[in-house]
From TrEMBL:
A GO CC term attached to the entry: plasma membrane
PANTHER family xref list: ABC TRANSPORTER PERMEASE YTRF, MEMBRANE COMPONENT OF TRANSPORTER-RELATED
Name of this chain's protein: ABC3 transporter permease protein domain-containing protein
Main subcellular location of this protein, as a coarse class: membrane
Mode of membrane association: Multi-pass membrane protein
One Pfam family cited in the UniProt record for this chain: MacB_PCD
Family recorded in the similarity comment: Belongs to the ABC-4 integral membrane protein family.
Organism domain of life: Archaea
Record flagged with keyword RNA-binding: no
Species classification: Archaea, Methanobacteriati, Methanobacteriota, Methanomada group, Methanococci
Domain MacB-like periplasmic core: 21-233
Domain ABC3 transporter permease C-terminal: 270-388
GO MF annotation, one: transmembrane transporter activity
UniProt-annotated location(s): Cell membrane
Amino acid sequence: MKPLDIISFAFNNIKQKKTQSMLTMMGIVIGIFAIVSLVSIGYGVEEYMHGEMMKMGGNKLTILPIKQFGIPPTHFFTDKDIKAIHNIRGVDSVVYGWYGGTDIEYNNEKKYVGYFYGAPNNIKKVYSETGYNIEEGRWLSNSDTYKCNIGYGVAHSLFNKNVKIGDRIIVKDKKFKVVGIMGQVGNQQDDNIIMIPISVGENIFDKKNEYNFITVVVKDGADMAKISNEISNKLEKSFGDTEFSVLSAEQLAETIGGVLSVLTLFISGVAGISLLVGAVGISNTTHMSILQRKKDIGILKSLGAETTDILAIFIVESGFLGLFGGIVGIIFGIIAAKIIENIAHASGYLMVNAWISWELIVGVLIFSFMMGVISGYLPARSGAKLNPIDTLRGE
């Protein structure tokens, strides 16, 4: 039989049992829909985070008191560690402080936000060079005490009433005057944040001589790799162990990207269970189709069709079921991803983006077609081996 004849037979068989074919494809549709939407959003967030990390620039190193993401630190940096880093040749400045979360109060409303305290002048230097900006007001200065900078979300969307320059926010029963509002970054961690001077932060949060975050600015022309190694060696002695990470912008982006990729793949794998259900459905449909068309198989064989021709018809038919299910699943998956993106952007989550590419679409289509082919192979093989005389007798 000619390839076009095989395709025509397979396509006509699907058309003759539309309802059965649609029900069979549902498992594939649901599975592909879930995978496309999840992978699209997952990789979109990963690309956004990579871009944000790269804004740090090539002359900055981030130092964290952890070896691996997800594992809590056993202890934190101290002034001794900061001094050791300062003394390294090629280091321009060091920003250190504490990132955490706390309740804040404004206009009799309480909300939970992130906070960061550090030396104001150093905060301004590093943040202004990494794409963060002050939308209104000014950065904190070293002479400030109970004053603060707030993120875009805190000012514009967190409370029922917008926070303005000169307003006061209560943190740990202390009133802080807002002197600067930061521009929108796009992720809630950075937009819902309040920055205060280190001198006040250490007192109200009772964390003197304890830091969970360090950023090192390296002088222009200095060897980043060499300084990174020197920092690691110095910290190993002052910190007391190697349970810390010294990361460049690229390394930090790769590390966070790796965590997000694993999470995306895991969630997609769970969603892929429905694909297994779809594969079983295709296999069952192919088997039922063979039982219903035994006489047709006998007639084709008596007219000269080879066993491989019969096998090809049923394999192409099951492949079409997988392919059509994949097409519908991709369409719904892309629509869902775009809806999620629009809702997220409207809510201030600019980091949530739908990543759609031809590689993703073509890859999913090939995958769904091959899943259909593999699912239908075994029942198709048994049907192709039927004895034509027995099938014509109805046995």
